[in-house]
Amino acid sequence: MKYTYFIETELGTIGISETDGSITELFLTKNRQKTTGGSQTPMLKEAEKQITEYLSGQRREFDLPLAAEGTAFQKSVWAALRKIPYGETRSYKQIAEMIGNPNASRAVGMANNKNPLLIVTPCHRVIGADGKLVGYAAGLAIKERLLKLERANKEEKTDAR
């Protein structure tokens, strides 16, 4: 059975869905009137905790069972995205090379666009070859905020050493 729970964050309302003990969707919603609460299972409670920790700069990696639906190609791209280190970025071409298909930059972009697990599968860490921010389902302003959050916390941790 599918359960969805909504949380309020500084980014806006985030919806988290779970099916059979795995997180299947994480999305930002613009319709605040119809997105309060929901059914919160223990897994959704843990996902909320980890997302809150991430947004406050206390978490760099997620430890959640994920079960996003997609093609084999999309899943390979999403797995590669989860390998991009916190606070770093990669180009679409670099992701294509990571999955062993160096000519698939456009297809990588399309897979990014279909990513159902925003933030947890960090498609916000993928940028244009020229270093510019391009495309993000939640909007470029959110992408920029996530990248700034990660850079600030990465530098903070590095400076503390």
TrEMBL record:
SUPFAM superfamilies attached to this UniProt entry: Methylated DNA-protein cysteine methyltransferase domain (SSF53155), Methylated DNA-protein cysteine methyltransferase, C-terminal domain (SSF46767)
Metal-binding as UniProt keyword: no
Residue ranges of every copy of the Methylguanine DNA methyltransferase ribonuclease-like domain listed in the record: 2-67
Entry EC number(s): 2.1.1.63
GO biological process: methylation
GO molecular function list: methylated-DNA-[protein]-cysteine S-methyltransferase activity
Other noteworthy facts: This enzyme catalyzes only one turnover and therefore is not strictly catalytic. According to one definition, an enzyme is a biocatalyst that acts repeatedly and over many reaction cycles.
Protein name, as recorded: Methylated-DNA--protein-cysteine methyltransferase
